[in-house]
Amino acid sequence: MSTPVIQTICCIGAGYVGGPTMAVIADHCPGVQVTVVDLNQARIEAWNDPDLSKLPVYEPGLDAVVGRCRGRNLHFTTAVDAAIAAADMVFLSVNTPTKTRGIGAGEASDLRWIEASARQVAALAQGHTIVVEKSTLPVRTAEVIKTILGAAEGETPTGPKTFSVLSNPEFLAEGTAIGDLENPDRVLIGGEDPAAIEALASLYSQWVVPEKILRTNLWSSELSKLTANAFLAQRISSINSIAALCEATEANVAEVARAIGADSRIGTKFLKAGPGFGGSCFQKDILNLVYLCRHYGLEEVAAYWQGVVSLNAWQSHRISALVVRQLFGTVTGKRIAVLGFAFKADTNDTRESPTITICADLLEEGAQLAIYDPKVSAEQIAADLGQPAVVTMDSGEGQWQVASNPLAAATGADAVVVLTEWAEFGQLDWRALAAVMRQPAWLFDARTVCDAAAARAAGLKVWRVGEG
Ligand code: UDX
Ligand code: ADP
User: Fold this and answer.
1) Which residue spans of the chain are classified as CATH 3.40.50.720?
2) Ligand 1: which residue has its CA nearest to atom 34?
3) pTM for the full model?
4) Please, what is the average pLDDT of the chain?
5) pLDDT of residue 1
6) CA 352 / ligand 2 centre spacing (Å)
7) How far is the C-alpha of 82 from the C-alpha of 86, rounded, in Å?
8) How many A from CA of 236 to the centre of ligand 1?
């Protein structure tokens, strides 16, 4: 077995996974030319923007890495075909959202973009090409990719065309992507072709110690990604379920989390109660797992994991309902300041953000929402809420507008609802906010990020998730 030397990489998909991952590979492998391609021209233009604050993905530290490598050995382009033809290794990092119609709607992943990109690779690749699944995929997707690529194998005018398929799921979390990529807990490579596995391992070994590079078969690798996300999401639903019980019993969920987290078998991480998990992965991956289990006739296993998603939705609706209840049972025509729209801090990503559910519930109740988030655009909020912003909020119907800072959001509001744990929300001047709110006024802190004592001292009533 001779390990192929990788000189040219193409990554299909310049999103939250493809962009940062390729930037870090380019940074650590200066001898490898890395080209990230996407059909979305606006996205590619943003990746090429000379102003590094305009990159399409906000991720702390990403601008520095892109600044170092772009134009040297990191390239962003819409010229998909040429980049595939030149590549020794192609990463598939396209979107795989939950299907919205047809068989498996609401649960199964929509594989149309994976199939389309596999077909493109099949048609355009030259010589031997290693194809790497980076997107999170249902178990046995590699079979589909192998079948599509296999049909294109054989003699061509430029020589034989062959493929190897690897699974190399990405475990980075948004907001900490660069740190996660620089110093991963593990790198997972699943495959059948030892030479292809070693070629990919040799890239990572430029900066990852050998003990952290795990090799498995294809199916274990695919399933490990779904399982890791399911276990992480399950911890959040578990702690959120206990938060509700704490509120009913005068226990405090932070204290409970500290007490149980001290047990080394449980551990301290991922025990922060909140408005429910969001992000592009957790719900999608669990629903995928549920669909797979049903497919294999494992109804009880499917129901077990379905419970994690159902509890999550319940938690978000529970918070909007208690806001309405505390505001005398009606929010119609009332101004409510919503602080935070991203699904977590340090990202501009809003996919599956619990804020969307909570805002939609409050708009349905007729609330007038003033929304502030330091990184999310007004266009994105409008797309997520499915209704445009208004200039003046005066109709009594559910309406929203963007506020340029927390004080502007709170002006005239009956409540401030904190839904993302941006660090700046821990520094708010509650005396100043209380002074511009309509009394009696509330702080609903779904992330326990605010200074509750200061808010109470300023005269606000305070609710915090998980505090009885
Ligand atoms: C997740 C996985 O962590 C990552 O390994 C995988 O590759 C992609 O999915 P991500 O969705 O970016 O990453 O963020 P993560 O930090 O896992 O948070 C997910 C959601 O859980 C967020 O809405 C976050 O606010 C919430 N969360 C997380 C909590 O409510 N409490 C916690 O203790 C941790
Ligand atoms: P992720 O969070 O997994 O990175 P994103 O939705 O942010 O997902 O990014 C996936 C990207 O893949 C999108 O920018 C989309 O335009 C791109 N994409 C999907 N299919 C193709 C394709 N066949 N060729 C090139 N780019 C594609």
Assistant:
1) 8-216, 218-468
2) 270
3) 0.93
4) 96
5) 61
6) 17
7) 6
8) 9
**Which of the residues 134, 225, 272, 334 is marked catalytic?**
225
Distance between CA atoms of residues 63 and 318, nearest Å: 38
Taking each helix axis from N to C end, the angle separating 112-124 and 141-150, rounded to the nearest 10 degrees, works out to 30
Beta strands 159-167 and 154-156: pairing type? Answer: antiparallel
Query: What pLDDT, in 10s, does the model give residues 365-379?
Result: 999 999 999 999 999
What is the Cα–Cα distance from 283 to 2, expressed in whole angstroms?
A: 41
Is 359 among the catalytic positions?
A: no
Q: What torsion do the CA atoms of 40, 62, 96, 215 make, to the nearest 10 degrees?
A: 130
Nearest atom within ligand 1 for CA of residue 172: 7
Superfamily of domain 8-216: NAD(P)-binding Rossmann-like Domain (3.40.50.720)
CATH of domain 218-468: 3.40.50.720
CB-count exposure of residue 405 (10 Å: 0-12, 13-18, 19+): exposed
| Lookup: tokens for 244 | 């509700």
Which tens digit of pLDDT belongs to each residue from 115-159?
999 999 999 999 999 999 998 777 788 889 999 999 999 999 989
The residues lining ligand 2, judged by C-beta closer than 6 Å to any ligand atom, are 12-18, 37-40, 43, 80, 93-95, 113, 116-117, 120, 135, 280
